[in-house]
Amino acid sequence: MGRVTERRKVLRIRDGVVSSRPDTLVAEEPLEIRLNGKPLAITMRTPGDDFALAAGFLVSEGVLAHAADLQNIVYCAGATADGSNTYNVVDVRTASGVVIPDITLERNVYTTSSCGLCGKASLDAVRTTARHPIADTPPLRVEPELLAGLPDRLRAAQRVFDRTGGLHAAALFDEAGDLLDVREDVGRHNAVDKLVGRALQSGDLPLSRTILLVSGRASFELAQKAVMAGIPMLAAVSAPSSLAVDLAAETGLTLVGFLRGGSMNVYAGEDRIALRAAATQG
Questions:
Q1: Strands 233-236 and 29-35
Q2: DSSP H stretches of helix in the chain
Q3: Are 193 and 182 in contact (CB under 8 A)?
Q4: High-pLDDT (> 70) share of the chain, %
Q5: Are 273 and 144 in contact (CB under 8 A)?
Q6: Alpha-carbon separation of residue 187 from 43, 133, 215, 216 (angstroms)
Q7: Under a CB-based contact definition with an 8 Å cutoff, are residues 235 and 211 in contact?
């Protein structure tokens, strides 16, 4: 199986001093996901947690919703001359009776690119396929001070980032601010899929009492993944996209952006933020 990091020789220039030294880079390899033997998608990812990544991806696509929906996941032989296994192809087998939705090319395009031209179709698709409606979850109230402390906890848990500086991260916290799980990947969407996939495999979906924190921006795709996993709150250290905000408003997702230090912007679902009445301004 591919490694999470690789070593490469680099020419280092520091204050006019030139030296040659090895550098640690994050590994990036393609992963083909097959569904019941048929090719479905290819994503560039950091090797590791591949089965969880595939399972999480299929949660966001509306194929899997519970651990019982999954029969097994296996690596397939790669397309090499000698037929050896590249560990870059996985086949997900669903349990008997699981209905496979029509995952069309159009849907895959806006799932991965959040194309504005198909924004309404994107919102409709998530609303109609979500198996764990956020509106049905128990009430969750989080104080701003608790949210403000989460980015530092995420950063402290990014072990591979410390060695490479080249990975996105996603973390799940409970409503008390305790870290439940953290995953790193070259793709922020893959990091979230790995979290969700591990939760599905453990029988923990829906994640109705959790907060999802991502290290970058909050795209439509990440908001979609939160909604499909039943996560009521998504926070990002950077900006959300307009379609992510629309999706949050449509589904009841609490969406927080620019979570840095003691400041943040709440774009939707502000009822889950426990504000002090005296501190609010019009």
A1: unpaired
A2: 50-60, 105-113, 119-129, 144-157, 159-164, 188-201, 220-228, 242-251
A3: no
A4: 84
A5: yes
A6: 9, 26, 11, 10
A7: yes
Q: What are phi and psi of 200, to 5 degrees?
A: -65, -45
Q: Please enumerate in sequence order all residues whose Cβ is within 8 A of that of 149, keeping only pairs 6 or more positions apart, or say none.
A: 177
CA–CA distance from 231 to each of 59, 138, 174, 199 (Å)? 12, 11, 11, 11
Any idea which residues carry the catalytic annotation?
Answer: 115
Strand duo 38-45 + 70-75: pairing: unpaired
The secondary structure element, H or E, covering residue 211 is strand 210-214
Quick check: bond before 206 cis, omega within 30?
yes
Say which amino acid occupies 131. Answer: R
Q: Read out DSSP for 14-43?
A: ETTEEEEEEEEEE--EEEEEEETTEEEEEE
Burial of 122 (0-12, 13-18, 19+ CB in 10 A): buried
Instruction: Report the alpha-carbon distance of residue 14 to residue 24 in Å, rounded.
Output: 17
At 141 the pLDDT is: 92
Q: How do the pLDDT tens digits run along the chain, 282 residues long?
A: 447 767 778 877 788 888 888 877 778 889 999 999 999 999 999 999 999 999 999 999 999 999 999 999 999 976 566 767 788 999 999 999 999 887 653 444 333 433 333 455 667 777 667 889 998 777 889 999 999 999 999 988 776 555 555 578 999 999 999 999 999 998 889 999 999 999 999 999 999 999 999 998 999 999 999 999 999 999 999 999 999 999 999 999 999 999 998 899 999 999 999 987 545 555
What's the CA gap between 94 and 107, in Å, rounded? 20
* Strand-pair category, 38-45 with 29-35: antiparallel
Radius of gyration of the chain (CA): 20
